[in-house]
Amino acid sequence: MKRTLVLAISLIAACVQLSAYDFMVDKLCYNINADGESVTVTYQNNSSPVYSDLGGALEIPPTVSHDGVTYYITAIGEYAFYGCGGLTSVTIPNSVTSIGNYAFRNCNGLTSVTIPNSVKKFGELAFCDCCGLTSVTIPNSVTEIANSTFWGCSSLTSVTIPDSVTTIGPYAFDSCSGLTSVTIGNSVTSISLFAFDNCSNLTAITIPGSVTLIGYGAFGRCSGLTSVTNLALTPQSIDSNVFFCANISNCKLYVWHEAIDNYKEADVWKDFDIQDLGGVEGVETDDETKTVEGYYNLQGVRIDNPERGQVGIVRLTDGTAKKVVVR
Question: Positive or negative, the Cα torsion across 140, 142, 143, 145?
Fold first, then answer.
């Protein structure tokens, strides 16, 4: 009798372990959140691939009904689609506010993902090793690119980091070897260690004037770099490992005219081929807006909507710059 009871308890425990979700609808598994009104998308199995039969284009609905109750889908949980190599595209609804750690890791067949502006947080390694991912739009609601979020997304060719982001976390785009273009938003203050390490096809990068911290190895092994534009008037304090295995002596560094002497005296920066980005002497007007690449304030921070009468700097498409008063 005792042996039978132990066996029964073991079988119950095994069933609990295998059932990692509260319910399943249309092949997707969900856990009910503490509020009782919303759910988190979760995994079916406890090992990779976490779904037995899931592939192709996936569109996650904003709501799901179960046992007569309709729930809002507010999160993609940890490991939710880990190792689902058959997925080719994912559309996330605007009811979702967070994407958990490892959520799409190693979905190597995934080529595109649509992320709405409702998402405020990426988990660590959320899209790590999605080597087929060719495009991703980071919504302007996200404030941080977490640790290793896009590590190993080797098919990504361009990334735009919106102005909402203040921190690019460690290893965020490490080994994105296909990247040729990166646009960093004007609110970023920190580019963490190894953030763009081993992005070997990246040829040019512009560092906004808002950046005050560049971590160890942030642009290490970026062997294709030929041009760096740094819009900070005061050079960031860095050591040589920031650009390790990048040939900085043959890489042009574009800085504001007023900052040239500062960069010529700054460790590491002085080893670049320093170029004059343009002078800011004399205030003048300029109405040939079709030639303007961007407006910047006098601290080198880009301004998307300059106000009339504002004094700033414009960078033109021919690479020159000048100080202007906005009409």
Answer: negative
